[in-house]
Structure formats: structure tokens, C-alpha cells
Amino acid sequence: MAGKPISSLPFSPSFISAITQAGYNTVGELADSNAETLAREINTSLSESQSILDKAVSSSTTTSFSFGQTAAAYISSAKTYSSSCQPLDALLNGGLPRAHVLELSGPPGTCKERLALRLACNAVNSNEGILWVEMQNFMSPAALKQAILDSCPSIPNAVNLVQYLSIHSLPELLIFLNNLLSSMEDYSSVSVIVFNSIWFPFQTATDLTATTRRSLLDSAKQTFTRLCAAHNITVRHRLLPGKLLLTALPQILTTTQLSTKILNRDGTSANFDTGSRAVLVPHLGGLYLPSSRTYRIIIVPETRTTGVLRLMLSPHGASDGQPAPEQRYELISGEMQGVVD
């Protein structure tokens, strides 16, 4: 489907003409571009170019099904993964769906890593693999192995379903993301990818300009978008003549810290000298996340053992003027649980 002409896309004639004049002849060529480059080439806004790319990626990965695919196989591809945490699952309508991104953010000590581990363990309990990408030494290979063994006693090969990768610098992260799509065959058993402390490599790269940072975050977004969109393809591996294998690509889970943002009274950005109030926001903002596939949840502690989970973004959008959905939680023996009214 990636060889479809640009004219097949649902854009106005002026956009089709501008895209073609910029040198893009097929949907696949357009899908391989990035928002910043496209905005410059066709003289449009960054948000408009991102919308164009999202439609191109979606069009280039149109779903196809083999006649041999059963209804059960199709239904199973829409599987969700529970975190075994009632307030989190309530905000996710039961669990994280395939081909979606979940960002968990909160201050230090708010159990976001433990929630990520719960979701990963539940995937292993379903006899499916996980890839844990550690970026701040919070979770060592030995600790992850022990957590999997403790949580998955009924899975004899549980440890073999876990892959671990340690990344500490921004160049390492960018190289990994750049190669991730082409190397997915190496992770064919993986159902969940956890990027733990994804903010850290960006924090330590102190020489980044704002423009470069935006460009790199946009590149990460393109990778996540393509990973999610690829789930909608029937991947055709030739096994035997006439036999096809349906594979599904994983969910993506990221954890990040909160950072302080200074605002003026009218809500616009300010600095410490001119601002009137400060708020805590996810460190990387939303530039690296495909909004149509993402759940963003902030952990807001109120006391040492209680607080709320707040859903800031979901694929279904938000109701204008309505407060963000929340679920109360309490920590019991270090584990997050729902609050019984």
C-alpha cells in the first residue's frame, strides 16, 4: 500500500500539488518524512504537516486480512493488558490496548516504575515477551529477573520472555529508536516495550537547542506512530505455500519525571522573575507522543500514602471545559490500590 500515489490521499488539490512539487510521489515516501521537514518544504504549520503525516502513515499501513484468518484471531489482536491496579485500569477502560502508548509521570517515589513493572509482568503471565529499556539504573537486570520470577510462578520460561537493554545517553536512545522498526524481527515475541525514565537522556544532554530538542522528540514520535500503525498490517511471513502468519506489534509504555513550569497569570509561559505561579508538568511535554494512540496519566500524591491518578490525554480526546478524569489511590505495603468509598 505504500506505493499508492499521493493523489489517493484525502487532501485538497492545493495540498496535493504542494506535496508533489516538494518531490513526494508516493504515500510511502511521504510517510518516511518528518513534520519539521515537510512543514518547511510545503510552507505550512508544524501542526498541519504533522496531521498530513499521520494520515499518510495510516494510509500506508492499511489493514489487510487473509482468508485463513479466523474471527478469534482478529479479536485477539485487540487484546488489552491489565496493570492489576484498579485505579489505573479504570482510567484505561480495563487495560492498555495493543498498538497504544501509555505515559506514566509523577514525582520521585510515586510508584510509576512499579506500575510499569506490573503491566510487564501481566504480559509475561500471558506467555508474551517484554522489552525493558532502562535509562536511569532504576531497574537492574537482576532486579527485573527476580520481579518476573516472583510475579509469574506459573510460567516455566518466564525469564526467557524478558529482554533488557540499558541506555544512558541521548545518542544511544536515538540510534535505538532509529533502528527499532527495522529490527522488530529480533523482538518478534515482544508484546510490551517499557522505556523507563525516557526523560533522562534528554535531561543530561545539556547542549540541546530548543529547535533540536523539538526535532528529536518529533523523530521519536514518528517511530512510535509507525510502531502503532504497523499493528494494523497483516504481516506476511512465508511459512508454507499459501500459509500466512498474523503478528501484532507491541504496546509502548514510558515513565517520566515532572518538571516545574512557570506561568503568568493568563497561563502563558514565564520565567522566575516574571511568573506568578508554578505547575508540575511531564518533563518531555507531549511532542514525542502520537496523540491519537496515547494515554497520558499523572500520579498526583496528596499524602505519603494517598493521592489521585489523573488522565490528561486519551485517544478519545477530552471534553471541553470538563475536568480531567481522576481515580483515587492508596499505597498498601508499597502497592497502589483503589480507594473503597
Topology:
Elements: H1 13-21, H2 27-31, H3 35-42, H4 46-60, H5 71-76, E1 80-81, H6 86-91, E2 96-97, E3 101-105, H7 112-125, E4 129-134, H8 141-151, E5 162-166, H9 170-180, E6 190-196, H10 200-204, H11 210-230, E7 251-256, E8 258-263, E9 277-282, E10 294-301, E11 306-313, E12 326-332, E13 335-338
Parallel strand pairs: 3-7, 3-10, 4-5, 4-6, 6-7
Antiparallel strand pairs: 1-2, 8-9, 10-11, 11-12, 12-13
Helix pairs in contact: 3-4, 7-8, 9-11
Subcellular location: Nucleus
Protein name: DNA recombination and repair protein Rad51-like C-terminal domain-containing protein
Keywords: ATP-binding, DNA damage, DNA repair, Nucleotide-binding, Nucleus
Helix content: 25-40%
Category from helices, strands and their pairing: alpha/beta
Shape: globular
**Whole-angstrom Rg:** 21 Å
Largest sheet: 9 strands, mixed
Q: N- to C-terminal separation?
A: 52 Å
> Residue-averaged pLDDT, rounded?
79
- Oligomerization: single chain
Q: Which sequence of strands runs across the widest sheet? A: 5-4-6-7-3-10-11-12-13
Catalogue the unreliable spans: 61-77, 231-248
Instruction: Give a count of the beta strands, DSSP E runs of length 2 or more.
Output: 13
Strand fraction equals 15-25%
Order of helices and strands: HHHHHEHEEHEHEHEHHEEEEEEE
CATH class membership of the largest domain: Alpha Beta
The count of domains is: 2
CATH 4th-level superfamily of the largest domain? P-loop containing nucleotide triphosphate hydrolases
What's the CATH architecture name of the largest domain?
Answer: 3-Layer(aba) Sandwich
| CATH level-3 fold name of the largest domain | Rossmann fold
User: How many helical elements?
Assistant: 11
Subcellular location: Nucleus
GO cellular component, one term: Rad51B-Rad51C-Rad51D-XRCC2 complex
Keywords: ATP-binding, DNA damage, DNA repair, Nucleotide-binding, Nucleus
Protein name: DNA recombination and repair protein Rad51-like C-terminal domain-containing protein
